[in-house]
Amino acid sequence: MAEINHFEYGWITPSLSYALSVLGSILGLICAGRIRTAGSAGQRAWWGLLAAWALGGTAIWAMHFVAMLGFAVDGTRIRYDVPLTVASTAIAVVAVGIGLAIVGTGRLNPVRLIAGGIFTGAGVAAMHYTGMTAMRLNGSLGYDTNRVALSVVIAVVAATVALWLAMTVRRGLAIVASALVMGVAVNGMHFTGMSALSVHRHEDQAEVSGAGMSTLLVPIVLAVIFGVVGLLYALLAAPTDDDRAAAAYLDSRRASEPAAAAPPAAPDPVGLRARSTLGQPGTPFPSRREMPPR
């Protein structure tokens, strides 16, 4: 049995992972709030996609791999299978997106909330253990069944609470407080699942294939930075409720204003206006009575 260290760099990695989960939760809750006020199906799909990326991609997946920076196994190097790592990203984003679609279409009720929470929680747990399966080291992995089950329960409960908050929380202070709670739940699920892991190291010192964490760190950091910047730009560029209310007020004012009256015609005592139209197509020739006096 190999010795495992979950905090090789002390509290730096768990602190960074918690900060990432809180940041992603804040952005995800704000984007989810825009789903409720969207005026069309296309806008709802757009904000749902952004919320899924913020929650699934940043608050969950990026948090997982930042926390994995502090994971080490005595006597072996750790590398990662890139396709499985990418697949774990897709699992997290798609699971959150489907969960938001379940609770965000129609009236929110307990059945929708529980169904969305179960699906999303199972997806989050699948993301975590897919990421663990992507590890390549000189040994074999084992899991404690009870702790794995506990981590899945935590994931389902955390996902259910997150979806409920996404559909109900609107105010700034409430969003921040909810994100702090969600950060605790996401990190709690991660480290509970990690505590279920055991490694049986192989005696032979075979070469470990795959990408090192230092190789994956740069694209992960760039993806997080560009993702957060893109989310912030989308939120800042989108019209707020106040903007929409102001636009509706201006439209109602324009609709209620009377049409501008035509200016009074200038006097034409000698019939110059009538004479100027003679001979033009569609102009009837005036009768003798209509002719001006000479």
TrEMBL record:
A GO cellular component annotated for this chain's UniProt record is: membrane
Name of the featured protein: Signal protein
Which parts of the sequence belong to the MHYT domain? 9-200
Q: Which domain of life is it from?
A: Bacteria
InterPro entries, A to Z: MHYT_dom
Is Transmembrane helix given among the entry's keywords? Answer: yes
What the entry lists under PANTHER family is as follows: DOMAIN SIGNALLING PROTEIN, PUTATIVE (AFU_ORTHOLOGUE AFUA_5G11310)-RELATED
Q: Which residues cross the membrane?
A: 16-35, 47-72, 84-104, 111-129, 149-166, 173-196, 216-236
Which lineage ranks, top first, belong to the organism behind this chain? Answer: Bacteria, Bacillati, Actinomycetota, Actinomycetes, Micromonosporales
PROSITE patterns of this UniProt entry? MHYT
Q: Which UniProt keywords apply?
A: Membrane, Transmembrane, Transmembrane helix
What are the boundaries of the region Disordered?
254-294
